[in-house]
């Protein structure tokens, strides 16, 4: 406490920490206001991630629904060189908001405001910056002092025309093309956003990853269970998408049939909302109508963020 970095940022207290970094609340001696200082561990992986994040943030530094990088610099410590990033101090993230609701879901009016702002941020990242966020989830969306929802943590982001990793996204928000090992694009973020919308509205994951196999002697892999969960809610994996999968033989037979999927009972989002959460038929229909274009299993058929913003769900 009391340390001053870059001759400017005086440490007041710790805000949080993660695998590769610690975030400190600081008083900016120049601007005379509080800032958040993220100090990255000197480990190689942390440094590479931080350098990537800075590149993305400098490109995406002009939208109020995407976190703004205010400053960056390096410091030397006993363990090596640390990359530092300075941000505005943001409030709680959406996961905290969900937890404070007792995991019962937020009022629909609030969900609509949040999702509109998230989609506006994604549209900016996708169309103006050419960036895939690659890790949209409640923990990575914060609320600022003006109650704007702000997309944060671009450490896993990539350029749409130059992807760095085959596997992206946290498991509950992972799109089917990534699970199948098929090339992905910006619409991977749209899938994740739909999962976030459902979680905000209900307090639960849209695709809980549990063992779907009735045979207790056999346990599916997480990928198999994930695909089963998707099939139960949205229907069978389109053959054209399946054929592009590098893991085709794991999930599909030579004649194109889904191994272990054909005996699953299709349930649908509408039925989940009315049966499990006791939504009215009208509210369930409207919400499902908003989500389904975002959850097209084949990304070629999935709506982009801008198209989602035009949906009538936001107006009613």
TrEMBL record:
Its EC number is 2.7.11.1. Residues 9-314 form the Protein kinase domain. It catalyses: L-threonyl-[protein] + ATP = O-phospho-L-threonyl-[protein] + ADP + H(+); L-seryl-[protein] + ATP = O-phospho-L-seryl-[protein] + ADP + H(+). It is an enzyme of class 2 (transferase). InterPro entries: Kinase-like_dom_sf, Prot_kinase_dom, Ser/Thr_kinase_AS, SRPK. PROSITE patterns: PROTEIN_KINASE_DOM, PROTEIN_KINASE_ST. One of its GO terms (cellular component) is nucleus. Keywords: ATP-binding, Kinase, Nucleotide-binding, Serine/threonine-protein kinase, Transferase. One of its GO terms (molecular function) is ATP binding. One of its GO terms (biological process) is spliceosomal complex assembly. This is non-specific serine/threonine protein kinase. It comes from Strigamia maritima (European centipede).
């Amino acid at each position: 406490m009391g340390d001053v970095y870059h001759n400017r940022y005086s440490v007041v207290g710790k805000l949080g920490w993660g695998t590769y970094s610690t975030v400190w609340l600081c008083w900016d001696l120049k601007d005379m206001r509080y800032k958040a200082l993220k100090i990255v561990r000197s480990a190689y992986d942390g440094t590479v991630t931080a350098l990537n994040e800075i590149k993305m943030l400098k490109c995406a530094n002009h939208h109020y629904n995407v976190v703004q990088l205010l400053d960056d610099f390096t410091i030397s410590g006993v363990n090596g060189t640390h990359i530092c990033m300075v941000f505005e101090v943001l409030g709680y993230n959406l996961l905290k908001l969900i937890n404070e609701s007792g995991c019962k879901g937020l009022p629909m009016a609030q969900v609509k405001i949040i999702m509109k702002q998230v989609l506006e941020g994604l549209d900016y990242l996708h169309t103006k910056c050419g960036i895939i966020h690659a890790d949209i989830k409640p923990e990575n969306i914060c609320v600022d002092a003006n109650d704007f929802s702000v997309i944060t943590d671009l450490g896993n982001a990539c350029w749409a025309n130059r992807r760095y990793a085959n596997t992206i996204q946290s498991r509950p928000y992972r799109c089917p093309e990534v699970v199948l090992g098929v090339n992905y694009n910006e619409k991977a973020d749209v899938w994740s956003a739909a999962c976030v919308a459902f979680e905000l509205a209900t307090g639960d994951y849209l695709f809980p990853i549990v063992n779907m196999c009735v045979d207790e002697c056999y346990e599916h892999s997480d990928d198999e269970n994930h695909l089963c969960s998707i099939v139960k809610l949205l229907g069978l994996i389109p053959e054209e998408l399946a054929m592009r999968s590098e893991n085709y033989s794991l999930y599909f037979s030579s004649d194109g049939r889904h191994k272990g999927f054909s005996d699953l009972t299709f349930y649908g989002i509408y039925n989940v909302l009315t049966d499990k959460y006791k939504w009215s038929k009208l509210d369930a229909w409207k919400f499902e109508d908003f989500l389904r274009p975002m959850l097209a299993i084949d990304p070629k058929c999935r709506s982009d963020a801008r198209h989602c913003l035009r949906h009538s769900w936001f107006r009613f």
